[in-house]
């Protein structure tokens, strides 16, 4: 084993021991024992900041938060990301994890100088006209300084902390090891896929470590709103940015929830709430790219009620399929149709087991009963989506991660909107955007394009299936693997196939009547009515009634 590898393993071991001892300190010794990590407990240990008896009296969610804060930047970030996942974490834990603070003492200015020189290739004095030595904000990954560029533009410079990447990579190695041990020793945890969660977190935090990602997010956001005069996005100065340095325009304004200051400045709070809500609906339903952390600290109100967005480290992405299915679910909720809501939930989510649809329907009806006598103006959209996510969790329907993130963002936007304007309603703002999306989806151009895409996929499938089947049969012949079939819960599929076959038969009969009637009309035989053969006219009439019935049947099913 090389010296470098041995040194790294030794550092990992020391850090692992530190993590285990902090877990013990906050009462998670049962977890440490289950994973077989008791050999890492330090003998004697260090003096605890809190008395063991006092820690023992704390509620479990608070213990988790305090442990994560003491474990450092990586674990704080993990907690912050988990706080956006109601599909994984119970509500009381989410509430506590949202309080996680990643504020740390700023690192020394001479280190800032060294990092900037290494990253940008020149001294601070040669790059900036002036540079504030004291950081005005510091977090676990880095800190922010105000500066003035040579051309006089005011800027903020985000500088990543020294050695933070090494610290995080060490912690990620340990987290992956803990996740694998958890799956091995606690079988019930496999339902939540601990290794998958760590993989998702590792991807997110590595993206956040690359400040270029945040810069590109800001550029994309800026482009999406370039024609909107109510939204402002700061410019990115790429010449003075790198993977570990991000220099962007300094925007100034009033914090969006500072009601007294907004009133003192004479701003129209109702207009601000409307501008923010419309911007958010555009992000979700048009752009499919939304600010996933829209708390008041990331939004400033500028002159003429313009809203300036900041901090683009965490962004949500919705593809066309999720957008369409989400709108279908939204419309089903507005129509208050439990069966349609269930269908749309199953279309949007993934389930690995048979669902008790009767109980699910009862829970959906109970949810809808809360809004029975309420108008659209009284519906809180964020709250409603969170209720749906909780119902989905109960029935093991895995909703897309973006959907849970969207619910949290909607709650934030609704909360800010209601602070600004007591009559604010997000559902009212969302409805026209959803209706426009439905109309656009049903336009002839969109339908033709969708048909062409589906035909292309079908063609590719027709070409691919024989090849894959041939490979599979060959492997079976060679004894590479054996194939065993097992089916469970196919009742819904069989019912759906029955309906499809019945519709197909219905359509064939309808086509036969139309063709037969057309032939009779051409023969010009038998009794006539208004110059046309009676049998042919009668056939077309039956075809029209049957055709109308088929259209009504399809429309009622909600599946075109």
What is the compact description of this entry?
By secondary structure, this protein is an alpha+beta fold. Helix content is 60%, strand content 9%.
Characterization of this structure:
The chain has 560 residues and is of the alpha+beta class. The chain folds into five domains: 129 residues, no CATH class; 119 residues, Phosphorylase Kinase, domain 1 (2-Layer Sandwich), CATH 3.30.200; 182 residues, no CATH class; 41 residues; 70 residues. 60% of the residues lie in helices and 9% in strands. The chain has 22 helices and 15 strands. Strands 1, 2, 3, 4 and 6 form a five-stranded antiparallel β-sheet that branches. It has a four-stranded mixed β-sheet with strand order 5-10-9-7, covered by helices on one side. About 1% of the residues have low confidence. InterPro entries: ABC1_dom, Kinase-like_dom_sf, UbiB_kinase. This is ABC1 atypical kinase-like domain-containing protein.
Secondary-structure blueprint:
Elements (H helix, E strand, L loop, with lengths): L2 H23 L3 H6 L17 H5 L3 H12 L1 H10 L8 H7 L11 H12 L3 H4 E4 L5 E2 L3 E8 L4 E7 L3 H22 L8 H16 L1 H14 L6 E2 L12 E5 L4 E2 L3 H6 L4 H19 L1 E3 L7 E4 L3 E4 L5 E3 L2 H15 L3 H11 L1 E2 L5 H13 L11 H14 L2 E2 L2 H20 L5 H16 L2 H34 L13 H33 L4 E2 L2 E2 H24 L3
Parallel strand pairs: 5-10
Antiparallel strand pairs: 1-3, 2-3, 3-4, 4-6, 7-9, 8-11, 9-10, 12-13, 14-15
Helix pairs in contact: 1-9, 4-5, 4-6, 9-10, 13-18, 13-19, 14-15, 14-19, 15-16, 16-17, 17-18, 21-22
InterPro entries: ABC1_dom (IPR004147), Kinase-like_dom_sf (IPR011009), UbiB_kinase (IPR050154)
Keywords: Membrane, Transmembrane, Transmembrane helix
Family: Belongs to the protein kinase superfamily. ADCK protein kinase family.
């Amino acid at each position: 084993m090389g010296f470098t590898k041995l040194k790294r393993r030794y550092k990992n071991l020391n850090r692992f021991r530190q993590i285990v001892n902090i877990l013990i300190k906050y009462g998670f010794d049962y977890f440490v024992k289950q994973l077989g990590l008791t050999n890492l407990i330090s003998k004697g240990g260090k003096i605890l900041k809190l008395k063991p008896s006092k820690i023992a009296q704390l509620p479990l969610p608070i213990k988790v938060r305090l442990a994560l804060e003491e474990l450092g930047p990586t674990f704080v970030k993990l907690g912050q990301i988990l706080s956006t996942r109601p599909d994984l974490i119970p509500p009381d834990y989410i509430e506590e994890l949202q309080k996680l603070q990643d504020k740390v003492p700023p690192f020394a200015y001479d280190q800032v100088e060294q990092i900037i020189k290494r990253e940008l290739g020149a001294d601070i004095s040669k790059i900036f006209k002036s540079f504030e030595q004291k950081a005005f904000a510091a977090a676990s990954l880095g800190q922010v300084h105000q500066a003035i560029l040579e051309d006089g533009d005011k800027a903020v410079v985000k500088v990543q902390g020294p050695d933070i990447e090494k610290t995080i990579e060490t912690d990620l190695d340990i987290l992956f090891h803990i996740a694998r041990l958890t799956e091995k020793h606690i079988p019930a945890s496999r339902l939540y896929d601990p290794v998958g969660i760590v993989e998702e977190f590792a991807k997110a935090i590595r993206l956040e470590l690359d400040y270029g990602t945040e810069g590109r997010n800001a550029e994309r956001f800026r482009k999406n709103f370039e024609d909107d005069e109510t939204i402002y996005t700061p410019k990115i100065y790429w010449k003075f940015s790198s993977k570990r340095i991000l220099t962007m325009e300094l925007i100034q304004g009033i914090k969006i929830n500072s009601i007294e200051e907004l009133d003192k400045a004479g701003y129209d709070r109702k207009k601000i709430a409307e501008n923010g809500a419309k911007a958010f609906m555009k992000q979700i339903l048009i752009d499919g790219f939304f600010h996933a952390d829209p708390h008041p600290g990331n939004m400033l109100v500028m002159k003429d009620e313009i809203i300036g967005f900041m901090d683009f480290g965490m962004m949500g992405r919705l593809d066309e399929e999720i957008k369409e299915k989400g709108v279908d679910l939204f419309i089903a909720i507005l129509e208050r149709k439990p069966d349609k809501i269930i269908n749309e939930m199953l279309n949007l989510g993934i389930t690995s087991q048979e669902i008790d649809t009767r109980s699910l329907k009862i829970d959906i009806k109970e949810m809808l009963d809360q809004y029975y006598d309420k108008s659209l103006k009284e519906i809180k959209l964020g709250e409603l989506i969170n209720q749906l996510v909780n119902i989905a969790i109960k029935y093991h329907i895995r909703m897309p991660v973006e959907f849970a993130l969207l619910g949290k963002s909607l709650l934030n936007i609704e909360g800010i909107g209601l602070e600004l304007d007591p009559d604010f309603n997000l559902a009212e703002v969302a409805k026209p955007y959803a209706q426009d999306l439905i109309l656009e989806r049903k336009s002839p151009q969109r339908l033709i394009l969708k048909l062409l895409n589906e035909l292309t996929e079908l063609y590719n499938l027709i070409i691919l299936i024989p090849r894959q089947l041939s490979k599979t049969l060959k492997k079976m012949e060679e004894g590479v693997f054996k194939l065993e079939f097992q089916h469970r819960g196919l009742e819904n599929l069989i019912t759906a196939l029955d309906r499809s076959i019945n519709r197909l038969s219905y359509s064939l009969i309808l086509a036969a009547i139309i063709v037969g009637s057309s032939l009779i009309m051409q023969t010009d035989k038998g009794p006539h009515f208004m110059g046309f053969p009676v049998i042919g006219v009668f056939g077309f009439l039956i075809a029209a009634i049957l055709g109308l019935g088929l259209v009504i049947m399809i429309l009622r099913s909600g599946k075109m």
